[in-house]
Amino acid sequence: MIQLKTLSNGVRVVLEELPYVKSVAFGIYVKNGSAHEDKEHEGISHYIEHMLFKGTKNRTSKQIAEDMDELGGQINAYTTKEYTCYHFRTLDSHFDKALSILSDMFLNSNFDEAEIIKERNVINEEINMYDDDPEERVQDIMQYHIWKNSSLAHPILGTEETISDFNSDKIYKYFKNHYRNDNTVISVVGSFKTEEMLNKLENVFGSWITKKPDKIIKINANYNPSNASEEKDTEQLHLCLSFPSYKREHKMKYPYAVLNTVFGGGMSSMLFQKVREENGLSYTIYSFPSSYENVGSFNIYTALNPAQAVSVCKIIKDCITDLKTSGISKELLNKTKTQLISGFIIGNESTISRMTSNGVSVLMLGYANEQEDTIKEAEKATKEDVISAANEIFDFEKISVFSCGNVSNTDLNSLSDIFNMNN
């Protein structure tokens, strides 16, 4: 059973005991990501994530790594547009030591100037790595343009220009302003006793007291239909199509999941079967939703020979039209719901997955659903719901087209026009 508690300082804690496992997954979730940054601070949330591994008042960065490796555990972190997470998984017998390491990083990091300068080069290499990957790059281009003029458009890593201005004072001030009791959630899943765990967390985190900031940037984005391309020295054209879609917590989120799975969510999906298996026009093609607190987009990615772009877009349009007019059969609906529910159950056998699901849900929504409740809601999706979602999402007048790589002979406006043609 999932339990939601609050420490004396206001930090929310979501706990789920799993007595049949021998490990514990532990995560700290802070509602601070790239979408909470202004232009001056682009990339600073991700920079802070790196710096928490670079030494504390009690441990050097090497000692952090060695102490965790000694336990045979896993420790990591990541930054998204909406939040940052620090997490570990370890045997239940090693939990106290692992908690000591991560809490030390979270509460006592040095933000040493020499380490900040050194880490800048590491992050620049990370930026270059993603820029060299056209699949990643075209999706970054898409995010920038569809959310233009809002903080949601900011790149998570920042840019070489923006991070060049970060120093110890600037990073520490931002950290103190954005890492707070009221926007932090601790998620614990695995082998433990709830009351014992709460006492441990109170002893470690209860004295962490923060002040409310003067200003917090709220995510206020609107979808902007647009086209954009970027030339790179590649053989293939990397293409993204995008439509405005549902926010994270929407009444249609389960029919939406069914729609995505049927349309482009796997090897049996319409896109994969039509584009790759029947016509051999692309090796990779898939769809994926991007849902945030107040907005969302539905996206399609493929990589292909530029000469095949028109043919593939016509097939994509035909698949969309077929979904909007004919919907899906009852058999396909039931098959897809079984696929989704099975994947959900199998995924939730991982303590890390459950920790993430619970932590993000409480952070963003204020609650976490029991697995059985989620399954019941998913089973309620009907054929009519799926066709309704398709008609709401696939508005050809709002399609956006983005490309990266071998773009010199590709006219994005012509590709957009394919979706607005009557034939």
CATH superfamily annotation of the largest domain: Metalloenzyme, LuxS/M16 peptidase-like
The structural class is alpha+beta
**How many angstroms does the end-to-end distance come to?**
54 Å
| Shape assignment | globular
Strand percentage? 15-25%
Number of helices: 16
Any idea of the CATH topology of the largest domain? Cytochrome Bc1 Complex, Chain A, domain 1
User: How many distinct beta strands?
Assistant: 11
The CATH top-level class label of the largest domain: Alpha Beta
Q: Summarize the biggest pleated sheet.
A: 6 strands, mixed
Order of helices and strands: EEEHHEEHHHHHEHEEHHEEHHHHHEH
Overall radius of gyration: 23 Å
Strand order of the biggest β-sheet: 1-2-6-3-5-4
Average pLDDT taken over every residue: 94
The overall number of domains is 2
In which range does the helix fraction lie?
40-55%
Task: Give a description of the structure.
The protein has 423 residues and is an alpha+beta fold. The protein folds into two domains: 2-205, Metalloenzyme, LuxS/M16 peptidase-like (Cytochrome Bc1 Complex, Chain A, domain 1, 2-Layer Sandwich); 227-418, 2-Layer Sandwich (Cytochrome Bc1 Complex, Chain A, domain 1). It has 16 helices and eleven strands. It has helices at residues 44-51, 61-71, 95-108, 113-131, 134-146, 160-163, 168-178, 194-205, 253-264, 270-278, 309-326, 330-347, 351-365, 371-379, 383-393, 412-418, and strands spanning 2-6, 12-17, 23-30, 74-79, 84-91, 184-190, 227-231, 237-245, 284-291, 296-304, 400-405. It has a six-stranded mixed β-sheet, with helices on both faces. Strand 9 (284-291) and strand 10 (296-304) form a beta hairpin. Helix 1 packs across helix 7 (168-178). The chain is globular, with a radius of gyration of 23 Å.
